[in-house]
Amino acid sequence: MKTLHPMRAAADEGWSLVVPLKPLALAKSRLAAAAGPRLRPRLALAFAEDTVGAVLNCARVRDVAVVTDDPTASEALAALGARIVPDSPAAGLNAALAHGVRAVRSLRPWARVAALNADLPALRPEELTRVLDVAAKFPRAFLADAAEIGTTFLSAGPGVELEPAFGGASRLRHLSSGAVEIRLAGVDSVRRDVDTGEDLAAAGELGLGPRTAARWLPAAG
Question: Does 151 appear as a known binding residue?
């Protein structure tokens, strides 16, 4: 397990979550078939707003850093209370997450950090609280997506590098890296990321957040 410093120190109180977000013009391309080209970027923003809003209402979360270069998303998510971190590496998802963690720990070196997908429009704060409470027991831990192929959540405790390996079949990569898989029932909203119309329908069954519902339900009829 790689650490950031040889000395042990007490963790800062509360979690810092890092949420990466592509430019809205490029986000959620697979959703275009269901939503159309004009609604797709607006839904991508709504997903992120509902995700960040739920995270900020989670009892265990101290702050949220959103890594993005999109000006519209930056303004909207900052208005919710997120810290915006420009994606200066511009080298993909995992580089953005590592950059976000560095930004968090530049202010709080011993912060507990977790990466969370920006496309969890049904996210419930109380379910995220349960995931964070389990994650706090391990140096690194992760939660698989609903398909049990990808990852929606990855955490690192104080002094531990996040080592993100998101994208595609990331569940196996995170397992292979030594992260502990969190196996909890009743946290479906933390696992339900949305890439397709079918995913969005499944999220709808869990209960969409207010911004996603306002944009999607009228369009869906």
Answer: yes
